[in-house]
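My main concern about presentation is that the manuscript never shows what a single data entry looks like. The format is easy to grasp once an entry is in front of the reader. For illustration, here is how one protein appears when written out as sequence plus structure tokens:
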Amino acid sequence: METFENLRFSSESFSGTVRLFPLPNLVLFPHVMQPLHIFEPRYRTMFEEALRTDGLIAMATLAPGWEADYEGRPPLYPTACLSRIATHRRLDDGTYNVLILGLRRVRLLGELKPARCFREARVEVCEDHCPPEQASRRAAVQHKLHEALLGILPTMPDAQEQLDHLLGTDLSLGMLTDVIGFMLDIEIGQKEALLAEVDVLCRAESLLAHLSTLADEHEPNRSCVTAFPPPFSAN
């Protein structure tokens, strides 16, 4: 396991070029850890290179229509999550179990010409926008977000312990919205919209709208959130 210090991100030392790991059913957010099982040869090569160098990959999401060209270069959503490999284990069959940590939003500026077995792109790091003069409004929105989560807790017995822990921590509004955005059981396109939103207040207000809709539409046997911590995602 890496030390916490080694998992930090420095924009000053970042090259602006990333290895892309696109999946169809996963939108990773900053501040979230995700286990992955790496078995495709191209992605095993990619992770091995990352482990030898900077430990960074960008988790991208395949856009609708990817099925026709999965082995090639199908279209991607324009925002990805720059991530660092936190820990890994090579299995006897040559595949890997890895744990990655989401670091920053990045906007895809353009893919590099195909020169490797995996895809690469130039990206721009997108920092959260949270002006100090909006502190009182942030506090009010964060309170509403807490109340909304408390309101749906009784309908989600399987997630109650995780949400109780989340609400008991002193997270910033930006971090809280990222964790909730990752956990919510909403469509991939809606998750991508949350990932692309750098205005923290706008992101929080979008989450409030999603939580209100989920509470109205909730079925007794269907959770509004996905498992957290998340299960392994296979490439």
